Amino acid sequence: MDKSLRTREQIEALVLADLRAVPGCEAVSHVTVVAYDNYRLPATWEVASFNAGTSNPEDCERVLIDIIKRLQERIDVSG
Prior knowledge:
By secondary structure, the protein is an alpha+beta fold. The protein has two helices and four strands; from the N terminus they run βαββαβ.
């Protein structure tokens, strides 16, 4: 399966929207995506940090892990 290419900013927007859609994580204010250039890894990007705002950071981090895995299967970072 070919993955779609998205910019780092587009991936950040997708991750943030998915995270904010989860009850209890609506106040997450920011995620930071970084690109990988290590070809031994199956993913080309990762979320380096996020700001939970007034949401519970531990609860949102557990959800974030699942969101990242799902999106990494479908999307590669461009440029």
